Amino acid sequence: MTAYNPLKPSERMKIKRQESLEQSPDDRILNFLEVSFGLDDERSVVEAKRCLECKDPLCVDGCPVGIDIRGFIQLMLQQDYVGAVNKIREANYLPAICGRVCPQETQCEELCVLGKKLTPVAIGKLERFVADFEMKNNLFTAPEIKVKRDEKVAIVGSGPAGLTCAAELAKMGYKVTIFEALHATGGVLRYGIPEFRLPKGILDTETERIKALGVEIYTNFVIGRTATIDELFGEWGFKAIFLATGAGTPTFMGIPGENLSGVYSANEFLTRVNLMGAFRFPEVDTPIRIGKQIAVIGGGNTAMDAVRTARRLGAEKAYLVYRRSRDEMPARDEEIHHAEQEGIEFLLLTNPIRILGDGNNWVRGMECMKMELGEPDESGRRKPVPVKGSEFVLDVQTVIEAIGQKPNPIIQSTTPGLDTSKRGTVVTSESQATSRPGIFAGGDLARGGATVILAMRDGKKAAASIHDYLRNSIGTGEVP
Q1: Which of 59, 163, 188, 299, CA to CA, is 20 to 30 A from 352?
Q2: pTM for this structure?
Q3: Are residues 174 and 129 both part of a single domain?
């Protein structure tokens, strides 16, 4: 193996992990600009030199899409940043997005050999650096598509699974069309993730690069209403379809008072702010009203996004109410840390039991109960148990529930023969195939709520399966 790092391993291990520059908490709670500025040129080179260039890079095993991490870092050490981002793009066509929102700390970085005794290489920050370098210097060139194929493939949904599947199939030479129900592409990347974590300009650029592969995109097109799956096969002439419509339907706790004004699902709240631009009201037409004291229920990344967004919208007191302890919180450590810096008050081992209203049916408070951890449940986490006599009232005027989402049932209800689970997800095999020949599914539609990178893995796997399906079905009469 050729070594590109001029430093000896012992010297590399003495270098401290480089941290991104960030907006100060006092400044960023007053705006929706990106919190992290990423690594600059100097810090990125220093960080790349920390890589041990392992002969058997375990970090790759931790990457759901199999990025050649050692390979792209070696290109960075040669200051070939465009080559580095193209090396990433061989496995992941959305590097600027994943460099920002992928939970590297529990995936590739968790397996980094350097991290066994020290801190792991900042793989995610290096990925973001090379993607941003290419973007800032306008150095992107679309890969040459060497084979042109006649078959048309439809992608339903333009979130991370749909965009990834579209890119992979387009690179193989297929004619790919994406159908998106909303007026803009990106799915959860657009409506769910705030501007301060993922600027929409980044998402727009990544989408344009997929269009540069020849992918056609229809927005405001609701499959199951504007056209059915069977019509896509029949009238439209598609030979295979990938369903990636996500999990955009919120779930609620089912406690008294949820019908009061001032109660939101995190899905509605974040969609109003991120997709409809409510944070720019009155420059835009969509307003959003929150109180001076707000409470967000939940402990995942969506809950963090909601409570940090509310803080920026003017909440003087923003509570994060979670029924387990911090150790059980599924949110990323970085998001928890940023929330704490921004003055979010964590009410842990606390469970809401009732939302209280005033005489005008607006929220005036939320009754909660303290919890303690018992034995582990089916998720492997210790189950929260109520503490008798621990009830108290939290004075809030807004309650946002971020306790999970489920798929919208439109496609399932209008597609005969498509098997679904009790949770409303579409049942798939390991290859992302559904019960209907020619139909594949992935992302949150098949998993329920999960991470962006796992949705991308599904999209990549589905593209390979669709390719196999079309190549093996041509001439057999099996293609719908």
Answers
A1: 188
A2: 0.95
A3: no
